[in-house]
Automatic annotation (TrEMBL):
This is Arogenate dehydratase. GO terms for biological process: L-phenylalanine biosynthetic process. It comes from Penstemon smallii. GO terms for molecular function: arogenate dehydratase activity. InterPro entries: ACT-like_dom_sf, ACT_dom, Chor_mutase/pphenate_deHydtase, Preph_deHydtase, Preph_deHydtase_CS. It is an enzyme of class 4 (lyase). One of its GO terms (cellular component) is chloroplast stroma. Its EC number is 4.2.1.91. It catalyses: L-arogenate + H(+) = L-phenylalanine + CO2 + H2O. SUPFAM superfamilies: ACT-like, Periplasmic binding protein-like II. PANTHER family: AROGENATE DEHYDRATASE_PREPHENATE DEHYDRATASE 1, CHLOROPLASTIC, PREPHENATE DEHYDRATASE P PROTEIN. Keywords: Amino-acid biosynthesis, Aromatic amino acid biosynthesis, Chloroplast, Lyase, Phenylalanine biosynthesis, Plastid, Signal, Transit peptide. Residues 250-343 form the ACT domain. The keyword Plastid applies.
């Protein structure tokens, strides 16, 4: 005999399928859906000869700089000390910056939580217009003439330190010091001239700051890849003559109260054959706790964390099925925004 749980799940799928069929038979209301015009579609594809000013966090030799150059080969680079400064530079209308390049996740270290928070904070001014993947090869660097066995302190970004955890343990370094970025760590080692100090940084950073590479490919995983987002004040739009399958859309939302509401929210994509490529959650900063009434436990109020949910899915918002899905999704949300629709980056 089937359990009550299995029966409930089957009933849920049947009801959701019925809602799906109803939604597809209703004309989509586009008030909350992003629409596109052919006139603005040039925004997506940037000619290599176009001179853009691109902001990134870090100093010369940073991986974000490499990602910016990979995305916009002929760009003029604009350095920012913090991620917040990068968002602000690209969001200012008269700031002279056209794009921003920010890391969002790494195959070893995971998500860059700070940048997810900043995406929401700046969502009214900035849009995701592209993505780029960068293969990261860390080097252990130090002053000329120093051996790696002589190092007692290593500087680098926290993500880089995590990505080299096992290599650092084998080296037996006594102290690890976090910095804002990997190239900044190399710059510190070069400027302080302390022979016991080393850094984890790129080969380019070692060359720029006159350091010796003590070990190549110092990261624990050989396939160490970072995904970067490209941001612009204008949303990317999709030409009608481009295959829509190779596009990705990023959204953020908060959910209404209720049992199973998260499953129902995700079902709007599954029932339309839309693949989800990323799900991330972050606590709300201003109101982290929400009050939930739970009659089953005879509790008047139960406090739990309230979250922003970030989802990437492999479809364009120009497709009718996507518009139906997003309209359906908003029945379960308190807050909803499209962060961007952009071409998928399929090569490393």
């Amino acid at each position: 005999m089937k359990s009550k749980t299995n029966i409930s799940f089957v009933l849920f799928l049947a009801c959701t399928k019925l809602l799906f069929d109803c939604h597809n038979n209703i004309k989509c209301n586009n008030n909350n859906i992003v629409t596109f015009s052919e006139e603005k579609s040039k925004n997506i594809f940037i000619n290599a000869g176009t001179k853009l000013r691109v902001a990134y966090q870090g100093v010369p030799g940073a991986y974000s700089e490499a990602a910016a150059i990979k995305a916009y080969p002929n760009c003029e680079l604009f350095q920012c000390e913090r991620f917040e400064d990068t968002f602000k530079a690209a969001g200012e209308l008269w700031g002279g910056v056209d794009r921003a390049v920010i890391p969002i996740e790494n195959s070893v270290g995971g998500s860059i939580h700070r940048n997810y928070d900043l995406l929401v904070r700046h969502h009214q001014r900035l849009h995701i217009v592209g993505e780029i993947y960068l293969s990261v090869h860390h080097c252990l660097v130090g002053l000329p003439g120093v051996r790696k066995e002589d190092l007692t302190c290593i500087f680098s970004h926290p993500q880089a330190l995590d990505q080299c955890e096992m290599s650092l343990q084998k080296l037996g370094v006594a102290r690890l010091t976090s910095t804002n970025n990997t190239a900044g760590a190399a710059k510190i080692v070069a400027s302080e001239r302390v022979r016991e100090n080393g850094a984890i940084a790129s080969a380019r950073a070692a060359e720029i700051y006159g350091l010796q590479i003590l070990a190549h490919n110092f990261q624990d995983a050989s396939n160490n890849i970072t995904r970067f987002l490209l941001l612009s004040r204008e949303p990317a739009t999709i030409p009608s003559n481009v295959t829509l399958y190779y596009y990705k859309t990023s959204i953020v939302f908060t959910l209404k109260e209720g049992p199973g509401v998260f499953v129902e929210a995700l079902a709007v994509f599954a029932l339309r054959g839309i693949n989800l490529s990323k799900i991330e959650s972050r606590p709300l900063e201003k109101n982290p706790l929400m009050v939930v009434n739970d009659s089953r436990k005879h509790q008047i109020s139960n406090k739990c964390f309230d979250y922003f949910f970030y989802i990437d899915f492999e479809a364009s918002v120009a497709e009718p099925q996507t518009q139906y899905a997003l309209q359906h999704l908003q029945e379960f949300t308190k807050f909803f925004r499209i962060l961007g629709c952009y071409p998928m980056h399929t090569t490393i």
